[in-house]
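Quick one: structure tokens for this chain, please?
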Amino acid sequence: MGWSVAAEHLFGRTAAHVLGSSVFEVVGSLSHGRAWRIVPLVEEPQARTWGVWQEKDEGGTGSGGKGVPGLGEAILDAVFTQADVGLHVLDPQLRVLRVNPSAIGMRGVPLETIIGLPATEAYASVGLRIDESMLREVLVSGRPARDVLVRSRPPADPEREHVFSVSVYRVRNGAGRILGLVATTVDVSARERAQARLRLLHRAREVIGRTLDVERTAGELVDVTVPDFADSTVVALTDAVLRGEAPELAAFDGEMLLRCAAAGSTRADDPPPTTGSTLLPALFGPKLPSSVTILPVEGAHSGSAPYGPRLVAPLSARGQVFGAVAFERRFGGDPFTAGDVDLAKGITTRAASSLENALRFTREHIVMTALQNWPIGQERQTQRAAEIAQRHRPGGSGAGSWFDALPLPGARVALVVGQVDRPGLSAVATMSRLRTAVQALATLDLDPHELLARLHSTVLRLAREQKSLRGSIDHPTAHCTIAVHDPVSGRLDAARAGRSLFAIVRPDGTVDTAPLPAGPLLGGDGPPFASVSLVLPEGSTVCLASPAATREQGPTRRSLAAALAHPDHGPQEMADDVQHLLALDRVLLVARTRHLSADEVAQWDVPPELQSAGPARERTQTRLKEWGLDIDPFTAELVVSELVTNAIRYGAPPITLRLIRGETALTCEIDDAALAAPHPRHAKATDEGGRGLYICATLAETWGVRYREDGKTVWAELESRTTGPGTG
């Protein structure tokens, strides 16, 4: 029926010459003194398939036994009885023919109870699920199935889940007839557990600590470990950590108050503790552990179900104790091993480091928020010049953005928006110093472009200080836009460093999204900075915002124009429309301009003659009576007289006197065309003059000078004699 290639070489006859012939005729005519063995290949119910093997030849070698009689059977018996690799032999009907004691799940099982049974039925009795379709695929196609992983709890070790690598091969005889399958099994539990631990540790390093938030970090620890490592995980943190405070350097004395920060469980019968609840000490054993510890399986969980295998670990870094974590597996589940201890140590170390980073970020963010929101915008003091809306789109990055609405003499208001590059705590600290510098420089009545030039020098000085202290080659740079609105004339003077957002909306709805081009950064290339002077009608809207990190993240001109093209909207509504277009952690300042009414401003031209001081005093006295301001008339007349006299003597025509009424103050301004800087003198006792500015500085609350391209303005501010209702 069959003639192998080895037979062709041995007898020198092809299969075509011998197939169908009597075995004895072929062997007898070609034996040449050789011995032969005729044995059945496979036991079958109805018939037998026989094989004819050369037992021995003249040279002492044989084609079947390799020169040693019975060697094949001896090897087969040795493999089946002594090899650690499990062996299973199945017939073409997938019935179990032979199994060695090392086979998968067979330790502790009488082999005679499964011989002859179908494979699916035989192995189901020991808790194994056999993929019959895979076996039949190998039987039909002849393609081996290698390293198929099968999980089981064998009778010899029911407490632990084992993983076996199964490989299945088809068996054929020399005639090509399919005789069945041979499967080998190897216990690879240790390998798979080690690989699973590595995968879990890798996932922990990817997932834990992504958010820089204490409570979310605790939740990430739970998400990573349930159910891949434990059936239940409880993360407990100290009250100080949950409040965002620095953890104390504490010993593991078990007396620290812990609260549940995150918990997860697969057990429906025993839910985990709720977030924020105080945890019982029994969860972590007799006391808070100082290292990863396996607890014995005993006690009661919440008074209802007993604990399964438990492993507890501290959450600590550099001597700081953040809390602890407890891992639990179901009762009767796999116990924790030394490998699990190492894995828990790696995961909790990562979690503790992430908690430390999150806590540091939380503290820095509190500081940054405090710095960014201080001082509060002085909206009430600027309401006469503009109606202001302020927005801050939070994002937590600490971008170093700020805005200010600063009241200036003469009822003017300075609108400032800036941002320091390279976000972080140092950027916010630099922002705070620049913000203070802007407020100090604003009192000097500088033009916006001149103020930016002074601010640029401040940034360079800060860079030199940081370089000398830290040895850093980087230096801070900043964007800043300053706009000064005068409600008397309606004039807006603006200057821009960098690319802070700057737009103007006029009452008719026209929007100018680029009244100024972008310029060099403060601390960068430096002045000159782009500047512009405009006269805006009352009701115009000025929009300032800090820029995004890249142009792609900020609003486009079209989207900004669409959001602002609603002059009927108030500043608050307009700020809401623009806010969502900004990048995270950016600020927005929207100001609707106002003009002072005729009964709030009085203005006269002054002839350049010394006798003009008298009429100026009379007009001042008359206007004070009309306005009803509680200001000493003699003081006001004396200040006006000295300002007018000083302008006539040292200034140049045209000369203009202006009085501006405030709620509790009077501002006296004198304009002239000279650019000479006035300064107080200390006159000698015999001098008849030289005391004008000294008198103004003595009587006025404050005074100053601001310059224009065509001259200057000297001003003095007088406070009311009453400071509130009921006084006087």
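The longest helix spans residues 338-372.
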